[in-house]
Amino acid sequence: MNKNIVILGTQWGDEGKGKIVDVLTSKNSYVVRYQGGHNAGHTLVIDGKKIVLHLVPSGLLRDDVIGIIAHGVVLSPFALFQEVDMLENLGFHIKNRLFISDMSPLILKYHVAMDIAREKKLGLNALGTTGRGIGPAYEDKISRCSILCGDLKDIKILSVKLEKILDYYNHQFISFYNQPMMYYKDIIKELLPVIDFCHDMIQDTTDMLHNTVKNRKNIIFEGAQGSFLDVDHGTYPYVTSSNSTVGGIMTGTGVGPKHLDYILGITKAYSTRVGNGPFPTELFDDVDKHLSYYGHEFGSTTGRKRRTGWLDIVLLCRAIYLNSLSSLCLTKLDVLDGLKEIKICIAYKNIQTLEVIKYPSMYHLQNMRPIYETHPGWMQKTKGVTKLKDLPNEAQRYIHRIEELTNTPISIISTGPDRLHTIFIKDFTPI
Ligand code: IMP
User: Fold this and answer.
1) Residue of the nearest CA to atom 9 in ligand 1?
2) Rounded to 5 degrees, what angle do the CA atoms 341, 346, 350 make?
3) Per residue in 26-38, pLDDT tens?
4) How confident is the model at residue 129 (pLDDT cuts 50, 70, 90)?
5) What pLDDT is attached to residue 25?
6) Does 64 qualify as catalytic in the annotation?
7) At residue 256, does pLDDT exceed 90?
């Protein structure tokens, strides 16, 4: 049976999507990134070795898999070059199995400089971006002045476009941001080696995917970031600049909704967020220390400490609705080991109106304070457990309560970073 699976985050990113993509890819032939860029950081542990991917689709580390970076992704050719080089040196031969869309907007150094300059100017109101140039690159796309991957194949077109766009950027750099000018000839010079490297990877990936669907090959769509960093559905303006909810697949790949057979939402057993913006269940106490320490909650792209909090069912229900989720995958359950009690946010209280709210508008999220349900924790270790029945009773009750509150089944549980640290619940049959 042809089954295409979507794997996306239901929180603010860092839910552990990379590991699940890697685990589920064994029986699939294509893995597709459809939005975001190298702001993403997907950590995999393979044979005890930690590998962090930013652009290369996570499933590509399996031998017989084809990777696609579709046009919804903003692509830094330098970041791609470095990452592929790192993987080839580790013995993963992926270069001939990776394709990038000719319609992907490029991230070049003026995007990065603009991202950093803007954050600096915002001072205390900064968004806390990853500083990778993501926002400016998507702005160029919407303003219809991006340099596209396909342009890398023609130096003349590339030079004309670069000269024109740099006029605009330099004007802002000099008159508004007090930054040095950039010259298109310098950028072309830096690009030459990576152009050579990318040349054969550049394809019409929409057509490739169309054929993949027609030939009934399996596809995994690998989301980056999480639902509440989505530019339309997230905690705007504290969001990324792409659609990290399921809609990003249609616009970002050209594959239509009837080909999305199974939509799996990845949810950490608690919450984290990097960067600024509302976070109703945020913790500042010893539990924060516990989650940070045992969950290694430091950004895999920027190294920043992640903010931590309890699981938020209000937002999770919203993510289930926004993405038409088929089921949930609960990750990092083992990080809760050793906590005396565990809280779940089941509703909010609006601090201005004192109303109890179950379906808040994202516009008012900063006014919401959590209402919790408290559950007993467990002292036993769950790390590496592979069967539901081997989990402590309290952990099983926590899992069932999440299913009950969200009215959505949990089909996979991750109990550690390794491929093998995974519980498949009996009725998860995506293929
Ligand atoms: P940008 O995507 O670099 O523009 O950053 C915008 C916001 O999204 C910031 O709060 C970042 O910390 C956050 N963000 C971007 N990518 C990720 C990710 O992969 N995981 C978690 N947060 C992210």
Assistant:
1) 129
2) 120
3) 666 899 999 999 9
4) very high
5) 85
6) no
7) yes
What confidence score (pLDDT) does residue 64 get?
87
Amino acid at site 54: H
Alpha-carbon gap, residue 267 to 10, rounded angstroms: 6
What's residue 430's pLDDT?
Answer: 45
If asked whether residues 14 and 91 sit together in one domain, one would say yes
Say what the pTM is: 0.95
Are residues 77 and 182 part of one domain? no
Q: What percent of the chain has pLDDT over 70?
A: 97
User: Is the confidence at residue 236, as pLDDT, over 90?
Assistant: yes
* pLDDT for position 28: 60
Domain that holds residue 183: 109-198
DSSP 217-256: --EEEE--S-GGG-TTTSSTTSS-SS--STHHHHHHH---
- Between the CA of 198 and the centroid of ligand 1 the distance, in Å, is 26
If asked whether residues 140 and 72 sit together in one domain, one would say: no
The two most distant CA atoms of the chain are separated, in Å, by 66
* Domain boundary residue, one of 227, 243, 259: 259
Based on the fold, state whether residues 119 and 135 are members of the same structural domain.
Answer: yes
Report yes or no on 430 lying in a domain: no
Ligand 1 atom at shortest distance from the alpha carbon of 9: 20
Q: What is the pLDDT of residue 431?
A: 44
111 is catalytic: no
Residues 271, 257: Cα–Cα separation, whole Å: 29
CATH of the domain at 170: 1.10.300.10
Residue 82, classified by CB atoms within 10 Å of its CB into exposed (0-12), middle (13-18) or buried (19+), is middle
